[in-house]
Design brief:
Layout lengths: L1 E6 L3 E10 L1 H12 L8 E12 L1 H17 L2 E5 L3 H9 L7 E3 L2 H6 L1
Parallel strand pairs: 2-3, 3-4, 4-5
Antiparallel strand pairs: 1-2
Helix pairs in contact: 1-2
Length: 109
């Protein structure tokens, strides 16, 4: 799993490339836990190249969700492949998290 970061004035975009499983979720957790992450208005998660997500990967997002909400940071997922989106839907996480089809919609959110 490779995580690429791009920051603009008020938005941090994390691009996930590969499989988000138990071992790679540690890397993602470290990225989301950085104090500077909470200084952005939006954290966008580009899932275009995310091929797989395990329960450990989902757990990372769930564990940071309240912290982001408390800090007023919007967490928005975009470009999610159908098979990954289905996992979010089956678990009802699409009701807790913002998932939009494109980067343009994520930026506008």
């Amino acid at each position: 799993m490779k995580i690429t970061q791009h920051a603009s004035a008020n938005t941090l975009t994390l691009t996930l490339d590969g499989e988000l499983d138990a071992s790679s979720s540690v890397l993602l957790d470290a990225e989301l836990a950085k104090p500077e992450t909470l200084k952005f208005e939006k954290v966008l998660i580009d899932c275009q190249r995310l091929n797989y997500i395990s329960s450990a990967g989902l757990g990372v997002f769930i564990s940071h969700l309240q912290q982001f909400q408390d800090a007023g940071v919007k967490l928005v997922f975009f470009n999610m492949q159908d098979k990954v989106h289905n996992v979010f839907e089956i678990l009802g996480l699409d009701a807790l998290m913002t998932i939009v089809p494109s980067e343009a919609e994520a930026t506008a959110f």
